[in-house]
Structures are given as structure tokens and as C-alpha cells.
Amino acid sequence: MRIPPLPDKRIALRHVAYAIATALVIIVIDQGSKRYVVDTLDLRNVGQINGVLPILNFRMAWNTGVNFGLLSAGSDVGRIILITFTSVLATVLAVSSAWCTRPLSAIGLGVAAGGAVGNLIDRFTWGAVADFLNVSGFGIENPWSFNVADVAIFAGLGLLLWPGAKKTEAAKR
User: Fold this and answer.
1) pTM for the predicted model, two decimal places
2) What per-residue confidence (pLDDT) applies to 75?
3) Quick one: which of 62, 59, 58, 60 has its CA closest to 79?
4) What does the pLDDT look like over 117-149, one tens digit per residue?
5) Of 39, 76, 122, 150, which is the active-site residue?
6) Using N-to-C axis directions, what is the helix angle for 148-161 and 103-126, rounded to 10°?
């Protein structure tokens, strides 16, 4: 398998800058929200705060695995494997932005990388990822919690897959 050639150097560097800047914004938002909810609101001890919004609750969950507790890593070895995997993944996402042909894709990679690093910081800080957002209401009880980093990972990959602008017939001529 061959690595495709990079686009123009200026474009590649600009896209990497977009990805890194976006990742940094996501990390700040993610870590700020976690510190506020876990420490300032003391969700670690309170456990849950219902009715933040009509369908939004704060419910503390410590995730030792990946999304929704899959591949849970309760041991130090498992945690090191997840930290290594996440570090490599975030690096690959950011570096891959150099090959993007449009800024939105580079930003999407940065959003996803920022989410991965946000959860990585939790693993170093707390030994598990702090999940606290819970969407339940109107008689529907959702057992899962997530965080800003999780949203960023999915949103970033969504931006990456977002179709490019379609050219009009006039522009094609």
C-alpha cells in the first residue's frame, strides 16, 4: 500500500494547522466541562443532577473502556494499551489532515483528534474517562452517559464524511 502524494505544501500545512487548532479548542471545552461538572458541581460525590435541561441530566459514570464501556480495561496493562492506542489514533488523525483536499475534512479530523486527546487526558488524570452527559426524559430512561470528547469524536468523523459541495451545471462548463 502506497501513501498518496501530499497536496500543495501550503495547503497541507494549512490543513494541519486547522486540525491542530480545532483539536486544541475541543480539548479545552472537554476538559473545562469535566472539571466544572466533576469538581465544581462535585458530581463525583453527588452522582447525578437531573433536569439540567428538559432532556439533559448529569449522571456520573467512570468509563474504563472505549465508548459505552466496550473493551473495558480495569487493569493497568489494559489502561496502558488503551492510552497507547488512543495516542496513536489521535496522532494519525492529526497527521492525516495534511492529505485532506478540503478544509472541512481537516477540521473534522481535528475535532475527532481533540476528542480522543480529551479522553486520553482523563485516563492519565483519573484512570478512567469521566462521562456525565445523559439524555433521558419524557418517559425514556437512557442508561448511558457520555462527554464532550465522545460527541467530538462522532461529530469529527461526521464532518470528515460530509459530502463536498456539488458543482452546479453552470460551474461544470
Assistant:
1) 0.83
2) 62
3) 62
4) 999 999 889 988 999 999 998 888 889 999 999
5) 150
6) 160
Q: Is 131 tagged catalytic?
A: yes
In the set 8, 39, 42, 131, the catalytic residue is 131
30 is known as an active-site residue: no
Task: pLDDT band for 80, please (50, 70, 90 cuts).
Answer: confident
Task: Please name the residue ranges forming H helices in 63-146.
Answer: 76-96, 103-126
Amino acid sitting at position 80: I
Contact 14, 98 (CB under 8 A): no
Domain boundaries, the chain: 65-162
Rounded CA-CA distance 84/173 in Å is: 50
How far, in Å, CA of 22 to CA of 19, rounded? 5
Of 85, 89, 72, 46, nearest to 127 by C-alpha is 72
Q: What angle do CA 76, 81, 87 make, to 5 degrees?
A: 120
Using the predicted structure, report yes or no on whether residue 169 has a pLDDT greater than 70: no
